[in-house]
Input
Amino acid sequence: MTLTLTPLAGIPLIKKGDDLTQFILQSLESMQIELIEGDVLILAQKIVSKAEGRMVNLTEVSPSNQALKLAEKTEKDARVVELILQESQMVLRTRPGLIVVEHNLGFVCANAGIDHSNVGSPGEDPKEWALLLPEDPDVSAQVLRAGLESDSGVRLGVLIIDSHGRSWRMGTVGITIGISGLPGLVDLRGKVDLFGYTLQVSEVGAADELAAAASLLMGQAAEGSPVVHARGFPYPLREAKLSELIRPEDQDLFR
Output
C-alpha cells in the first residue's frame, strides 16, 4: 500500500468569487497529473472561505454588551469576540487570549476558527480583517467534487481541512471540517487482528488522518500550498458528512 501526497503548484492568491475548481484543474494539467478513480483533493479551509467571501472588515463590526464583557475577560478585541459569538452555539471555556466554543457547525474549536493570518490584501492592516469558516463546508466540498468529477469522469473524494488544537495534547493538527465522497470514520469493529482477536471498539478517523498528512505539506505560516492531491487512500470511497466525525455531547468527557 502506497499513499502519495502531492502539493499542487500555481494556485494563486484567492479572492471572493474565484472558481477553485478551475484553478485545481489548471494546476493538475500543468503538473501532468491525470485524475483517476479514488483520488482525493484536500483543500485548506482558508482558500474556500476566501472564495466564498467570508472575509469581514472589523471596522464594520459593532460589539454587543456580551462581547464587550467577554473581551475584557479574555483580553481580546471586542469586535473579534462579537464574530466568535455570532459563529458559535455556546461558549465552553475561556482564558486570556482564548475562547473555546461549540461552533455553529457542531464541533468544538478555539475562537470559532476565526483567522487573521494571510487574510488582508497587500498594503492593508491584517489586524483589521478576519476570516470566518465556510458557512457549510460539506456543501462546499460537494460542489468542488461535482465540478472535478464532471471534468475528469472519475469518482473522487474532497476534503476541506483546518488546523485545530486538542484538549489532551499540545500543538495544532490538520483536521477535516468538510467532506464529500470518502469516509470520515471507518468502523473496524468485527474485524480480526493478526492474532485472531475480534476488534470490539476500533473506529478510525480516516479523513482526519489524511487531513493531518496533507497539512504537513500545506504549512502553517506561509501556506503556499493550499491544495494537495492524494492517491492511494486505503479505504473505499463512499458518501459521508462531517457529522460522523463529531463526538456526541453525551459521550464527550471534555464538555
